[in-house]
UniProtKB/TrEMBL annotation:
Name of the protein in question: Rieske 2Fe-2S domain-containing protein
Coiled coil start-end: none
Lineage, broadest ranks: Bacteria, Pseudomonadati, Pseudomonadota, Betaproteobacteria, Burkholderiales
InterPro entries, alphabetized: Cholesterol_7-desaturase, Rieske_2Fe-2S, Rieske_2Fe-2S_sf, VanA_C_cat
The Rieske domain, residue ranges: 23-126
Length: 347
């Protein structure tokens, strides 16, 4: 009897659950209230809770004693008490108390995996690391979110499938001309195009040549402690004041077969224009945006998991190829650094 051994590409295995040492959005802020919650993100099970002051904390949802879910326990300020045996774990991963065996060797050890979290733009972000770190690097987002000159709304959804298909979708402006051709904002422009890649200080722009501000004509990829994508869609006059609207997008793997997608819809408006835009969005435009997003979801969820292994690409896909190559290079670097560290050699 012959035995066949299947080996998984280590680069693909890493990418499937998300690169390390990056900030990722993991859920809207409203997901975490008074009680601890458990979320599966980035291939891990994470316990999130707020202390009495509302400050967020996060630990791997795994008690270092026997592996019970900490999220089922009691909040004690910056600590969680495991419901199984009462072991108390501080937000930095340190076991502060073992009620059943005071003074045992588990007490005082940093035995649990902790995560840095922060809230911004209606979203909880988590720094993805496999080890406990004291100070994570900063992250920044595009001006559409960081500048007070813009107003924004968060659109959050969970899609079945690999998060990399969601990234490919945003890095493919041409699909807007066909899949979204009945949209109120993507019905114009040429159905043929030539694309180019333009390098930026934080990444690159994939754009149509000779057409701008007519349809979904460009996508920007950025890496600023967090990976994000940005695009711009023209608005008809019925969309209210403020000109074109922008979308800032992120995609976070849940478990390799599910994706959390974040789309911030942004517009540069102030004074009465801000109020008008926000009213129009809630009462007219939001439903149209969701309809467009549903078209993307249905298309991606119906694709086979290995669809990207049976492709015949052409010029419109050079942005997708560039992004895939970039992510694989980053994964290669992380794997090499991890191997060097394990061997005791300089990274």
């Amino acid at each position: 009897m012959n035995t066949i051994t299947l080996t998984q590409d280590p680069v693909d295995a890493l990418l499937k659950v998300g690169l390390k040492d990056l900030w990722y959005p993991i859920c809207p802020s409203g997901f975490v209230g008074e009680r601890p919650v458990s979320l599966r993100r980035l291939g891990k099970k994470i316990a999130l809770w707020r202390d009495a002051a509302g400050t967020l904390h996060a630990l791997e949802d795994h008690c270092p004693h026997r592996g019970a879910p900490l999220s089922q326990g009691m909040v004690l300020g910056d600590r969680l008490a495991c419901p199984y045996h009462g072991v108390e774990v501080r937000c930095d991963g340190t076991v502060t108390k073992v009620p059943g065996s005071p003074g045992c060797k588990l007490e005082g050890t940093r035995a649990a995996l902790s995560f840095h979290v922060q809230e911004a733009w209606g979203t909880i972000f988590l720094y993805n690391s496999d080890v406990n770190i004291d100070t994570p690097p900063p992250m920044t987002m595009p001006e559409e979110l960081s500048s007070p000159e813009y107003s924004h709304f968060l659109c959050y959804a969970e899609w079945k499938g690999d998060y990399r298909y969601a990234l490919d979708n945003v890095m493919d402006p041409m699909h807007g001309t066909f899949l979204h051709k009945q949209s109120h904002s993507m019905a114009e422009g040429d159905s043929t195009a030539t694309f180019q890649i333009r390098t930026t200080d934080t990444g690159f722009v994939f754009e149509k040549t000779g057409q701008r501000g007519v349809n979904f004509d460009w996508t920007e990829w950025g890496s600023t402690g967090v990976h994000w994508m940005r695009l711009e869609i023209p608005y008809p006059k019925t969309g209210g004041p403020g000109g074109n609207f922008a979308i800032v997008a992120c995609a976070t793997p849940i478990d390799g077969n599910m994706t959390a997608v974040f789309f911030w819809r942004c517009r540069k408006v102030s004074s009465w224009q801000r109020d008008t835009w926000r009213f129009l969005y809630r009462n007219r435009l939001e439903a149209r945006h969701w309809a467009v997003l549903e078209q993307d979801r249905i298309m991606l969820e119906q694709m086979e998991p290995d669809a990207n292994q049976h492709e015949n690409l052409y010029q419109h896909d050079i942005g997708v190829v560039r992004l895939r190559r970039h992510l694989r290079n980053l994964a290669d670097e992380q794997l090499e650094a991890a191997a060097a560290a394990k061997a005791g050699a300089p990274a």
